[in-house]
Every structure is written in C-alpha cells, then in structure tokens.
Design brief:
globular; binds pyridoxal-5'-phosphate; seven-stranded mixed beta sheet; 377 residues; alpha/beta; four-stranded mixed beta sheet; Aspartate Aminotransferase, domain 1; Aspartate Aminotransferase, domain 2; 19% strand; 11 helices
C-alpha cells in the first residue's frame, strides 16, 4: 500500500530528538527552531516527560470515558492554575481541529444561532466546521460549505459590529496570534472591542490558542496581553509535547448536558500523563520566563538585520517577513546551516522553537541565520 501523497516532503528522516536538537538517519544534527509545527513545548524527549509516559503506559494506556479517570481532573486543576482559568471547565480531545469543532458546536448549542465570524488569513484546522472557518477556499470541500461564515479583516471593530448587529451570529473565532497566516498579532484594542461586542450581541467569543497558547507568546495565552477573557479557548499542539491532544476551556456560562459532546480517545490516560508532565516541566523550569528572555533577545537581534520588511510576533512565535521569496533562505538554512524553520506564504519565515530554547541556542541560530540572510546571499 502507498501513502496518500498529500505532503510535500523534505528528503530528511528525523529519528532522534533531544531538547532543541534533532538528528536524521545519517546522524546529522539540526537545530530545531520549528518544534515540528509548534508542537514541541518542553523540548524533545525531555527526561521527565519520557518517564511520565513510560510509567503510565506500564500501568494503563487507555480506558474509556465511561469510568472515572482522575488524571483528567489532575490535568484540569494544573491547567486552571497555570492559565488563570480555574473557574472554567475542561473538555479533552485529540487535535486542534477537534478542539475548534467542539467549540463552534458548543457555542451553537448555547445560543441556538448558526453563522460564524472568522478572520481573513485564519487557520483553524481541517475538519468540517474548523476548515469552514479557515480562510483558504482550496481546502474547503463542498461538504464543508453548509456552515455560514463571514470572514472579516483583523483590527476593524466597525465591520465586526455591522455583522453582529444582524442578530444571526453564533460565535466569533479568532487566533490569539495568527500562525499559518504569517504571525499576525491582533491589536489589544481590537481584542477588547471583540470582547465587548460579543457580550453586547450574545455572540460566543472563541479564541484559538492552538499555536499561540501554552506559554509561546510569553504569557500563558496570547489574548492575555489584552486583559480579556474569551467564552471558549481552544488549545492543542504544545499541550502534550507531541503526544496528540487537544482541549477546550469553557466558561461557567455554558451548561454541560450528558452526551452533548463526546469522544473515544479524548483525555485518555497516556495523553493526560503527557500533558501533566508538560505543565510540571513548564513550572519547574520557568519556561514562560525563558520564552520572554529568549524571545526578546531574538527580536532585538533580528531587528538589527537589514532587508527585513516586517518583524512580527511575541515571545517565541516570530514571523520574519522579507520583500522577496524566502525559499532559498529557508532551504539554505536547512540543508547548509542545519536549522529547521517554518514558513507562512512565500515571504515569511516562522520561528516556533521549543519553549526551552536557551540563549546560547538562540545565539547559535542568529549566527547561522546571518550566513544565509538575503543581504549576504
Ligand atoms: C491556530 C491553529 N488552529 C488549529 C490548528 C489545527 O490543529 P490540528 O492540526 O491539531 O488539527 C492549527 C494547526 O496548525 C493551528 O495553527
């Protein structure tokens, strides 16, 4: 059987990881400034993470959501404390798309309405409702088209109010910082206006923190820079450092009803053990402080480089936009300088390293980056 060929692949196989480094089959070492799509939060194969999963799998990998799993409550307690949302409720699933799918559904159950406001250049996943609120027609199939969605530009509260006034909007979904869209940061004032407008017009405010959350921005959630509290927050990616997991944080205004949401694998024992280990490591190693220190260093250094059109982001979610295509820069970074980075569109490099990236590793990255930076090509 062949693999369904949907991924353009680099001709590299990664077989080992440690901290912010990975190794391929030839034993070549790479500096990982991408964390495998922002997934590696506490570092590859962190010993406490490995131990937690190993101990759990030796006891029990899975049992269904028809019996008590106290690891779920342990995770909820730790996540509530770490994020400042201990009055919210937690629903666990396996991916980011599922988190958004359930968030949109919950909002619609709650207020009985249907239309969704999403934003230009948004990315929320590839399942039915999640892909429909993603601003990329090429990945929306006819079967996904049922949900009515209006895409609006970021940072224009007037246009949002014009739509919300019509009375048929169930929810508004916005990324804490747009990731796939090129690290676009919504302004604090805009987030505050959205909060007010959603309350005024009985619209559920959903903030997708799947890429920008879990400490990556320098606060637990990126929206916390605006001092607001959304009705629903979705997370995935870094939550379990590579073990598939997603979660929905739900405000007390939503009433849970047996059967309204559900999943086979969500919140399984192994995923919970991984996610608990991640929060413990983040706390013990003060990783959010580290994100601020190392993120500020990288921003400061990058700002001094010539030829950058725009530098965007917060903490360790950084977009470096050039006037020209970055195809060659990125390829040289990977194949000559042995550094993994991401892209957005054709002109933006995305940095999404593990939150444990050290200052020395960041300096090492800058040295390698300067060698391939367009002005030196
Ligand atoms: C902001 C955002 N939302 C949702 C998703 C979808 O997550 P998943 O691929 O785990 O379904 C992603 C993935 O890149 C994302 O960046």
């Amino acid at each position: 059987m062949k693999l369904f060929d949907v991924y353009p692949l680099f001709n590299i196989e990664i077989v080992k990881g440690k901290g912010c480094h990975v190794w391929d089959t030839e034993g070549t070492e790479y500096l990982d400034l991408y964390g495998g799509h922002a997934v590696i939060s506490v570092g590859h194969s962190h010993p406490a993470f490995v131990l937690a999963i190993t101990e759990q799998v030796n006891k029990l990998a899975f049992y269904s959501n028809s019996v008590i799993n106290s690891l779920q409550q342990k995770l909820a307690d730790k996540l509530g404390k770490a994020s400042g949302y201990d009055d919210y409720a937690l629903f666990l699933i396996n991916t980011g798309a599922e988190a958004n799918e359930n968030a949109l559904k919950l909002a619609s159950f709650h207020n009985g309405k249907k239309r969704v406001i999403a934003f230009k250049h948004s990315f929320h996943g590839r399942t039915s409702a999640a892909v429909r609120v993603t601003d990329n027609p090429s990945i929306i199939a006819p079967v996904n088209e049922g949900l009515p969605v209006t895409y609006l530009p970021l940072n224009d509260p007037y246009l949002v109010e014009t739509e919300l006034k019509k009375g048929d909007v169930s929810s508004l979904i916005i990324e804490g910082i747009q990731g796939v869209g090129g690290i676009q940061v919504p302004s604090n004032e805009f987030m505050q206006s959205l909060r007010e407008l959603c309350t005024q017009y009985n619209v559920c405010m959903i903030v997708d923190e799947i890429q920008s959350g879990y400490g990556r921005s320098g606060k637990f959630f990126a929206h916390q820079y605006a001092g607001i509290r959304p009705d629903i927050i979705t997370v995935a990616k870094g939550i379990a450092n590579g073990f598939p997991m997603g979660a929905v944080l739900i405000s007390p205004m939503f009433k849970a009803v047996y059967g309204m949401l559900g999943t086979t694998f969500g919140g399984n024992h192994l995923a919970c053990a991984a996610a608990i280990a991640v929060l413990d490591i983040m706390e013990n190693e003060k990783l959010i402080e580290n994100v601020n220190t190392v993120g500020n260093y990288l921003m400061g250094e990058l700002r001094q480089l010539p030829g950058i059109k725009e530098l965007r982001g917060r903490g360790l979610i950084i977009g470096i936009e050039f006037e020209e295509s970055i195809k060659e820069v990125r390829s040289k970074l990977l194949f000559e300088e042995k550094v993994f980075t991401g892209v957005a569109g054709t002109n933006t490099i995305r940095l999404l390293p593990p939150l444990s990236l050290t200052l020395e590793e960041a300096e090492d990255f800058m040295k390698r980056f300067k060698k391939v930076h367009p002005s030196t090509l």
